[in-house]
Write a structure and sequence with these properties.
The complex is a heterodimer. Chain A is an alpha+beta fold. In chain A, 22% of the residues lie in helices and 37% in strands. Chain A folds into two domains: 220 residues, P-loop containing nucleotide triphosphate hydrolases (Rossmann fold), CATH 3.40.50.300; 117 residues, Beta Barrel (OB fold (Dihydrolipoamide Acetyltransferase, E2P)). In chain A, strand 18 and strand 19 form a beta hairpin. Chain B is mainly α. Helix content of chain B is 78%, strand content 0%. Classes of the chains: A alpha+beta, B mainly alpha.
Chain lengths: 352, 231
């Protein structure tokens, strides 16, 4: 799957002028509210038309203003999960789910009704009406409805934003399974770092209608980290569960990470979000410390900021950013190429 | 039952129901189309279009009837065309009465339907489009079902208007027993006739009962339709 996006659109005072490419997997459009993320997905879906530009999906032109092509949304086969579910109130959950099955070519159809219903855990809701559903249930039905229309690409516009923490926690695993089991390309809009870190492979950062950065999620977030809280997003494998200490051990190329018990299957790939200020650096063997997580790292770059020093590190192939004081930098002699140990407090880790 | 009303009264009741049903049924497709245009259309002359549709609501019914006679009478441009091409004559026929009733009830029908179409969340239609539904499919599967309460309300209002229509009908198709004499025209004739008061009262009661029945029925249907769709 290849999506190429290049469009300009003016909405009052706001101007969107963005260009990016997505090569399958989960691509996150990340940025603050009002930065133009929803405008972008609406343009991809065909719900609005760009003033100028060209959007293609796998070589097929969806929009090209230069030659006057504008494929209507119904013929794009692009699924859309809206922030506010938008279930049809006059239809049962079952009819909502099968709505998209009425349209489109039989040939390109994929996805088994029973399998998708089971994946989303909505089997018990089929006879109900959308109005009787909770927010989380509605959103899962909306996801199922979009999937059952056999889309080539799925757009998700902050599908979790309207939900409380508990509901979000309920749906996130479904989205992960969607990514891992359905292999469906997803364009995922969010302004929540934790969601993007957990779900996305690629991230496109949107600021004030423009693409500020784009690339693999770890790299982009590290670049942006110069003025943010994020220290690192590490991908690790669940290696063991320690029942006695109540911790889960994660395998990472740079060492073993201990985090509060996760209860996930062994071998599962997880992402770990670490704040820059929870990372300490040590040169040489740190000796006896209460800090359990010690990752081998190498200094890539050192840059002086207003109040402190940002140290960019390479941790087993993944980027990490630590913040230290000027004094600490001097004492440790932090400079590019130096081997250090990154110390991370176990409690500062969770699967965010 | 035969003792309750005279043959002429039965005729008027039957004719009234027939005229009202045909008027409502025939104008419904046009009513929905005009309501769609009014609720969603953005085109030059929209205000004028709206005014023309609402005209029968504000004009004296006699004027409407006379305009119908001018247009649809045997010598009128439309009436002559229909007569020559299809052999259809409306003037002084019950079909003409139905046309008069349809025209008089049309603004009420369009208004009710347009209001309910305006109330539909268009984002639901967008959702349907992303699921592969083309414009016609979106209209049939989302817009129309969600506008159903308004459509029912429009049907009842125009049906009631058709049952009560007098001025335009009597002007356009006169007051011919068995052909164009509906309940209101019959009541009018009866009160002109010495000793007709009793019969007039009986027809009045019939009129009230039919109208009440239509209202109750529409309320019941509307409640069923809205029960599942409104919070």
């Amino acid at each position: 799957m290849t999506l190429t996006f290049e469009a300009e659109k003016r909405l009052g005072d706001f101007v969107l002028e963005a260009r990016f490419t997505s090569e399958g997997g989960v691509t996150a459009l990340f940025g603050p509210s009002g930065s133009g993320k929803t405008t972008i997905v609406n343009l991809v879906a065909g719900l609005s038309q760009p003033d100028r530009g060209r959007i293609t999906l796998d070589g097929e032109v969806l929009v090209d203003r230069a030659v006057g092509v504008m494929l209507p949304p119904s013929r794009r086969r692009i699924g859309y999960v809206f922030q506010d579910a938008r279930l049809f109130p006059h239809l049962s959950v079952q009819s909502n789910l099968s709505y998209g099955r009425w349209f489109g070519p039989r040939a390109g159809r994929w996805g088994d009704f029973g399998a998708i219903v089971e994946l989303l855990g909505i089997g018990a809701l089929l006879k109900r009406r959308p109005l009787d559903l909770s927010g989380g249930e509605k959103q899962r039905v909306a996801i199922g409805r979009a999937l059952l229309a056999s889309p080539r690409l799925l757009l998700m516009d902050e599908p979790l934003a309207a939900l409380d923490r508990a509901r979000r926690a309920e749906i996130l695993p479904f989205l992960e399974r969607l990514r891992d089991e359905m292999k469906l390309p997803i364009l995922y809009v969010s302004h929540a770092v934790d969601e993007v870190a957990r779900l996305a492979d690629q991230v496109v950062i949107i600021e004030a209608g423009r693409v500020a950065a784009a690339g693999p999620v770890g790299t982009v977030f590290a670049d942006v980290a110069a003025d943010s809280e994020t220290g690192a997003i590490l991908t690790a494998i669940v290696h063991a569960e320690d029942e006695i200490d109540g911790v889960t051990l994660l395998d990472h190329p740079a060492g073993v990470l201990q985090i509060p018990k996760l209860g996930r299957r062994l071998g599962t790939r997880v992402r770990v979000h670490i704040r820059a200020r929870d990372i300490a650096l040590a040169v040489g063997e740190p000796g006896r410390l209460s800090i359990r997580n010690r990752l081998a790292a190498r200094v890539v770059a050192v840059s002086e900021q207003m109040s402190d020093v940002a140290v960019s590190l390479d941790v087993g192939g993944e980027p990490m950013l630590a913040r230290v004081t000027r004094g600490a930098q001097r004492d440790l002699g932090l400079a590019p190429g130096l081997a250090v140990t990154a110390l991370i407090k176990a409690v500062a880790l969770d699967e965010r | 039952m035969d003792g309750l009303f005279t043959a002429e009264e039965w005729q008027a009741i039957g004719l009234s129901l027939r005229v009202a049903c045909v008027a409502v049924a025939a104008s419904l497709p046009f009513g929905i189309a005009c309501a769609m245009l009014l609720a969603r259309g953005r085109f030059p002359g929209r205000t004028l279009f709206s005014a023309v549709i609402h005209l029968p609501l504000v004009m004296p019914p006699v004027v409407t009837g006379f305009l119908l006679l001018l247009a649809f009478g045997r010598k009128g441009p439309i009436g002559a065309f229909l007569d020559q091409q299809f052999g259809v004559v409306l003037a002084f026929r019950w079909t003409g009465a139905a046309l008069a009733c349809a025209v008089m009830g049309f603004p009420l029908m369009v208004r009710a339907i347009a209001l309910s179409i305006e109330a539909i969340d268009q984002r639901l239609e967008q959702a349907a489009a992303t699921l592969g539904a083309g414009r016609v499919a979106v209209f049939l599967t989302v817009t129309l079902p969600l506008a159903l309460p308004g459509i029912l309300a429009g049907l009842v209002l125009s049906f009631a208007r058709a049952l009560g229509e007098f001025g335009a009908t009597i002007t356009f198709v006169s007051n011919i027993p068995g052909e164009t004499q509906t309940i209101p025209s019959a009541i009018y004739s009866l009160i002109q006739t010495p000793g007709g008061d009793g019969a007039a009262l009986r027809l009045t009661i019939v009129s009230v009962v039919i109208s009440l029945g239509a209202l109750v029925l529409s309320e019941a249907i509307a409640r069923r339709a809205t029960r599942d769709t409104r919070p």
